[in-house]
Design the sequence.
């Protein structure tokens, strides 16, 4: 077994789970704030095996889901323009906007939309479409923003004049700060996103323990990672000594990845940003810096953030805050299914509603 | 969306590396990685970029700690 495969080892997982069942004698609710954790908690079967005392609450960890209604309306307006080619990660294609439109329906209406695997691929789209501006939809957390920043630097190196980024990136710590400041949020501990933390490190989450007395563990995505994080949280709750612990040391350095952060900081600067369900959060987004203004899609004539109403009946906002479980939404599995999604939390494979739908036998 | 997978580096050409996992091969860019990786290293790949090198010794150490904590002998 290679040293990384061992984190899936069933015998070791069973032993760790048995220990968790034994130790977790007082109830707590933990929130995961990363869509990949959401999926892996369900997919591994862990969710149905957790001791009765431990309740899993899914949080705002799906970048597609937290993209605000106005931001969706903004990129759909761009898609409708004849002078624009959109390049996007596939996850955004079916995110519903005003009047039931999404990028797929826009494509059917003649919009030029290219799905790319990497933002760098969008540079080739721009090169292949002279005479039009290619706009890459910059959606994602700190994991993704450095890749988009590096792409903007490449565009400048290549002297590409028709490539721009619509930067709707979001930052995780300000969202966590907003969540824990909400008196109605009933969360006792966090498991923190492994790959966001690979970039920012563990230090920016310190306030969770210091200011709010909440244990929080940075961890990876294998069953063993999640179980060990829960054991760690259980132990911290018992000892009454909450801390922010990095349990993903094979990938995450406590200081994160300074090279990636430098690239991100060279190109982007923090700004207030809109989150679905959470509203405007100070310093929680990234705007393209003045020095790279030629690559900022918000600088194109006619681009703005239109007012857009919340999706009728959709409770994604509450789901993202952990205030409502997806299956408590009146539309869940009725009007809203992955085939007929009403909100983004059912569209994205990392969305809480999609996970509940796919693994509903385990609820 | 922050899905990022560990892949093994099979070749390095300046700022681009060939990576492989389970027969899938790709090219990834190295501008964001904070320590120069070598062929045979595993890196976490996200959106076409290698973002961190996986630390093999650390992984072995972590597993050992689990086993000791549980009094297990598995590897
Ligand atoms: S089930 Fe559908 S309508 Fe309800 S919150 Fe989830 S995405 Fe929105």
Sequence:
């Amino acid at each position: 077994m290679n040293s990384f495969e061992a984190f899936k080892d069933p015998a070791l997982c069973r032993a760790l789970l048995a220990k968790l069942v034994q130790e977790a004698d007082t109830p707590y609710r933990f929130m995961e704030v990363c869509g990949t954790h959401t999926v892996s908690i369900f997919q591994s079967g862990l969710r149905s095996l957790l001791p009765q005392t431990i309740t899993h609450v899914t949080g705002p960890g799906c970048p597609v889901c937290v993209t605000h209604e106005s931001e969706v309306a903004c990129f759909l307006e761009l898609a409708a323009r004849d002078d624009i080619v959109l390049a996007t990660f596939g996850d955004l294609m079916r995110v519903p906007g005003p009047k039931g439109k999404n990028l797929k329906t826009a494509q059917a209406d003649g919009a030029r939309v290219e799905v790319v695997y990497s933002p760098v691929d969008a540079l080739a789209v721009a090169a292949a479409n002279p005479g039009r501006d290619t706009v890459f939809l910059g959606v994602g957390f700190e994991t993704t923003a450095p890749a988009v920043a590096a792409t903007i630097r490449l565009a400048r190196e290549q002297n590409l004049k028709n490539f721009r980024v619509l930067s709707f990136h979001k930052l995780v710590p300000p969202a966590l700060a907003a969540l824990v400041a909400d008196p109605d949020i009933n969360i006792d501990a966090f498991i923190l996103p492994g790959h966001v933390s690979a970039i920012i490190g563990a230090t920016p989450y310190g306030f969770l323990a210091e200011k709010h007395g909440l244990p929080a563990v940075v961890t990876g995505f294998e069953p063993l990672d999640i179980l060990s994080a829960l054991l760690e949280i259980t132990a911290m709750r018992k000892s009454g000594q909450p801390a922010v612990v990095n349990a993903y040391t094979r990938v995450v350095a406590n200081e994160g990845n300074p090279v990636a952060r430098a690239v991100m900081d060279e190109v982007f600067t923090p700004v207030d940003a809109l989150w679905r369900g959470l509203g405007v959060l100070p310093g929680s987004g990234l705007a393209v810096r003045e020095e790279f203004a030629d690559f900022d899609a918000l600088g194109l004539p006619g681009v703005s953030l239109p007012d857009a109403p919340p999706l009728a009946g959709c409770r994604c906002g509450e789901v993202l805050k952990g205030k409502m479980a997806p299956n408590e939404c009146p539309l869940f599995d009725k009007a809203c299914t992955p085939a007929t999604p009403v909100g983004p939390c059912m569209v994205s494979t990392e969305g809480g509603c999609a996970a509940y739908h796919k693994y509903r036998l385990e609820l | 969306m922050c899905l990022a997978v560990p892949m093994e580096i099979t070749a390095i050409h300046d700022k681009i590396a060939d990576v492989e996992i389970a027969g899938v091969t790709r090219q990834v860019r190295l501008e964001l990685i904070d320590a120069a990786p070598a062929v045979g290293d595993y890196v976490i790949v996200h959106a076409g970029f290698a973002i961190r090198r996986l630390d093999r010794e650390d992984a072995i150490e972590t597993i050992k700690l689990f086993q000791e904590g549980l009094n297990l002998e598995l590897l």
In short: Residues 8-70 of chain B form a domain with the SH3 type barrels. fold (CATH 2.30.30.140). The interface with chain A takes residues 1-4, 6, 29, 31-34, 42, 44, 46-49, 51-52, 54-56, 58-60, 62-63, 66-67, 69-70, 72, 74-75 of chain B (CB under 8 Å). The two ends of chain B are 33 Å apart (CA to CA). Chain B has a mean pLDDT of 86.
